[in-house]
Amino acid sequence: MRDLDDLFAALTKSGFRRGFSLRPRERAYLAANGRETVAEHARAFVAQRLAPAEPANDGRQTPFRGHPVFVAQHATATCCRSCLAKWHRIAAGHPLTAEEQAHAVAAIMRWLDAQEGQDAPPQPNAASRRGQGSLF
User: Fold this and answer.
1) pLDDT per 10-residue tile (average), the chain, 136 residues
2) Contact 88, 30 (CB under 8 A)
3) What is the C-alpha end-to-end distance of the chain, expressed in Å?
4) Which of 82, 84, 93, 106 has the least C-beta neighbours within 10 A?
């Protein structure tokens, strides 16, 4: 597994990963529900959608918006098994260990913690993101 400091330094060099930020609705959700509740959601999403050796719809299982964790997963490359392999050096094809799951959740929460202290930047036209439903 890749050290999180090293990972976050590399993520800053990716225009795609840098392009993610929480929208007002996702910020409000995080503020209303609190960090620990959102961390529980992150653990559940990682366990259900990422931890299996061959997740259903791998590469398409994580929406781009609708929950702060989903946005964080794309920003931190914890959205699918191929991103985990490329960015986190966690090989695909095996169920994630408890340590690997904790690593993914730590990356997600670190990114969300950093987002809390930032002003919300202007967002691109929501219509430009195809097929992105909301969980709210």
Assistant:
1) 97 96 96 97 97 92 93 97 97 97 98 81 42 43
2) no
3) 33
4) 93
Written as six digits, the tokens of 94 are: 């095996």
3-state secondary structure the chain: CCCHHHHHHHHCCCHHHHCCCCCHHHHHHHHHHCHHHHHHHHHHHHHHHHCCCCCCCCCCCCCCCCCHHHHHHHHCCCCCHHHHHHHHCCCCCCCCCHHHHHHHHHHHHHHHHHHHCCCCCCCCCHHHCCCCCCCC
How many other C-beta atoms lie within 10 A of the C-beta of residue 106?
15
pLDDT of residue 129: 43
